[in-house]
Each structure stands twice: as structure tokens, then as C-alpha cells.
Write a structure and sequence with these properties.
Elements lengths: L1 E11 L2 E11 L4 E5 L6 H9 L6 E6 L2 E5 L4 E2 L7 E4 L11 H6 L7 H10 L15 H14 L4 E5 L7 H18 L3 E4 L3 H7 L2 E6 L2 E6 L1 H5 L9 E12 L2 E8 L2 E8 H5 L6 E7 L2 E8 L6
Parallel strand pairs: 3-9, 3-10, 7-8, 8-9
Antiparallel strand pairs: 1-2, 1-4, 4-5, 5-6, 10-11, 12-13, 12-15, 13-14, 15-16
Helix pairs in contact: 4-5
Bound molecules: adenosine-5'-triphosphate.
Adenosine-5'-triphosphate binds next to β1 and α1.
InterPro entries: AAA+_ATPase, ABC_SmlMolc_Importer, ABC_transporter-like_ATP-bd, ABC_transporter-like_CS, ABC_transpr_FbpC, P-loop_NTPase
GO cellular component, one term: membrane
Organism: Hydrogenobacter thermophilus (strain DSM 6534 / IAM 12695 / TK-6)
């Protein structure tokens, strides 16, 4: 169980605001932290890792108190059992892939390093240096290194955002597979709705430092406050369905807009259809305006 309470005054471009988050997350849960740029997502991860200090807070992980401002407890980062993966890999350039992964393991275990490399289909690259790897491969190594130490908590800060679409999809599947296999509670920051739908057990949506929604992907994505008021028309380029929800990618002029609809709505839509997307009492309504398929 992870119990977290954080308060910290942040300096945003529009003035100061308060990061104010309180939550409980159960063991082995995948929490996705979602929200606009500047909301305080990275700062929250940094506070959990001990890289920044909150003005006021409490953090308990698996029965161990890492921070308690009232009792003056604040474990330094190296005493907090976390694995951290950033957007920019941060591997040791002078170490091989295998050495990078073994670094920080509580009990050196070459067999485990090999098992992880096998799982990520990276065995053939184990003696390479990071400079000889692609971006996707480097990020895989960063993830393996964070997992290898079997931390009590895994923190991932937009680990897929610097990768091309195909690599990001493959790595996303691996993150899920690792998390399921090793059952490490994971907090991941992402801007991607696909990450929300494919990875998260629960989603924390924060805006301006405040919790706007906290629940299952479905509860959060379809929550009534989710969409600002708007109305636009565009052409459906792609629909991707996961469980009960589908993401529509719609070209509106030169912009690409993504909206989430339920599967039933999506079933009636085809790529190439012209759509009207509007909100009615803050719940998006998607209607077909025209279908080229009717004319062929
Ligand atoms: N130690 C700090 N003290 C005060 N303000 C800070 C501190 N660290 C970050 N900030 C400010 O807090 C705001 C939130 O930053 P943060 O990086 O957490 O946002 P974010 O939600 O991760 O954004 P993005 O999605 O763009 O990465 C920013 O305006 C930043 O300048």
C-alpha cells in the first residue's frame, strides 16, 4: 500500500499555484498520471523519489515512512527503494547494456539480468554500449535497469514520448508485461490517451496541481468535467478500440484531434467519414455528417 499526501507551492507561468494531492494506491497497481503541461505531474514524481521536498507531506510505501513533514522524516533518494525512468534514458555511457541493468541490483544476479534481457528480446545486445543503441533500445535498457532492482515503487516519467509510434507501441506492451510479472506498483506520467486505456488500473488527472479526477480509465475519461465546450467538424483518420472505449483521430483543418467515445458510437463510424464533434452539457457528442462509403 502507498499512502501519499503532498502540498507544495509551485511557480507556474501564470503565477504561483498549490500542488495538492492526496491518494492511496494498492500493491501492484498501475497508476497513470495524466493532465495538461505544467500541472505538476513531474514534480509529484520527483517529490516521491526524494529529489524535491514538499512544503508539507506524508509518504508511506509498503509500511515504511519515506517522508513525514510533521515528524521531520525525509529519506534521501538513495534510501528510497524506487526505480525511476525518465524521458531521456539516463544510462551510464561507459557501461555495457548488461552492466547498466545489473547496476543497483540489491543482490547481483547475472541469471536475472539474462532473464530480463530475454524477456525484452535484447540478449544479443548485452555487451553493447548505450551509444550503439537506438532510442527505443536505450529506453528498454532504462526500464530493465529500473525493474532489475525490484523496487518497491516504479516511477516512469513519459518514458514513451521520445520514441516513434511503432517503438512506443512495442515498449508499452513490454511495460505492461513487466509490471504484471513483477507486480511492482507503478506511477507513470503520460499525455497519451492510449497509455491511459492500455496501461492504467487507475488514472489520476491533475490540473493546476489539483486532483480533477481519480478512478478507472473509463471513469476518468468519461467524467463530466473532462471536455471543455467545443464544436468542430473533421474527417475520421483512425479509430483504435480498447475494451469498451475507442479513440478517434480526427483531422480538423491541419490539426489532429483525438476524442474518446464508447464502442457502440465507434461501430457506426468508418475511416473517411466527416464527423461533427461537439459537447452537450460537457459530454462530447459525435455525429456522422457524411460518409463516402454511402456513395460507392
Ligand atoms: N521546485 C519547484 N519550485 C517551484 N516551482 C516549480 C518547481 N519545480 C517545478 N516548478 C514549476 O511547477 C510547474 C509544474 O511543473 P511540472 O514539471 O511538474 O509540470 P508537468 O505537469 O510535469 O508538465 P509537463 O507535462 O509539461 O512535463 C511548472 O510551471 C514549473 O516551473
Amino acid at each position: 500500500m502507498i499512502r501519499l499526501y503532498v502540498r507544495k507551492r509551485l511557480h507556474g507561468p501564470g503565477g504561483d499555484f498549490l500542488l495538492d494531492v492526496e491518494l492511496e494506491v494498492s500493491d501492484a497497481e498501475f497508476l497513470l498520471i495524466f493532465g495538461p503541461s505544467g500541472a505538476g505531474k513531474t514534480t509529484l514524481l520527483r517529490i516521491i523519489a526524494g529529489l524535491e521536498k514538499p512544503d508539507e507531506g506524508y509518504l508511506e510505501v509498503d509500511g515504511e515512512v519515506w517522508h513525514d513533514s510533521k515528524r521531520g522524516i525525509n529519506l534521501p533518494p538513495q534510501k528510497r527503494d524506487v526505480g525511476f525512468v525518465f524521458q531521456d534514458y539516463a544510462l551510464f555511457p561507459n557501461m555495457t547494456v548488461a552492466e547498466n541493468i545489473a547496476y543497483g541490483m540489491k543482490r547481483k544476479d547475472p541469471q536475472k539480468v539474462l532473464e530480463l534481457l530475454r524477456l525484452a528480446k535484447m540478449e544479443a545486445l548485452k555487451d553493447r554500449k548505450p551509444s550503439e543503441l537506438s532510442g527505443g533500445q536505450k529506453q528498454r535498457v532504462a526500464l530493465l535497469r529500473a525493474t532489475a532492482r525490484e523496487p518497491k515503487l516504479l516511477l516512469l516519467d513519459e518514458p514513451l514520448s521520445a520514441l516513434d509510434q511503432e517503438t512506443a507501441i512495442a515498449l508499452r506492451d513490454e511495460i505492461k508485461a513487466f509490471q504484471r510479472k513483477y507486480r511492482i506498483p507503478t506511477f507513470m506520467v503520460s499525455h497519451s490517451i492510449e497509455d491511459v486505456l492500455r496501461l492504467a488500473d487507475r488514472v489520476l488527472r491533475i490540473e493546476n496541481g489539483r486532483i480533477k479526477a481519480f478512478g478507472t480509465p473509463r471513469e476518468v475519461l468519461f467524467s463530466r468535467e473532462w471536455s471543455p465546450k467545443f464544436s468542430l467538424t473533421g474527417v475520421l483518420l483512425e479509430k483504435v478500440c480498447v475494451d469498451v472505449a475507442c479513440i478517434l483521430s480526427i483531422a480538423v483543418g491541419s490539426e489532429l484531434v483525438q476524442v474518446v467515445v464508447d464502442k457502440k458510437t465507434a461501430q457506426e463510424l468508418s475511416v473517411g467519414d466527416t464527423l461533427l464533434v461537439s459537447t452537450k452539457a460537457f459530454v462530447p457528442v459525435v455525429k456522422k455528417l457524411h460518409s463516402p462509403h454511402l456513395n460507392t
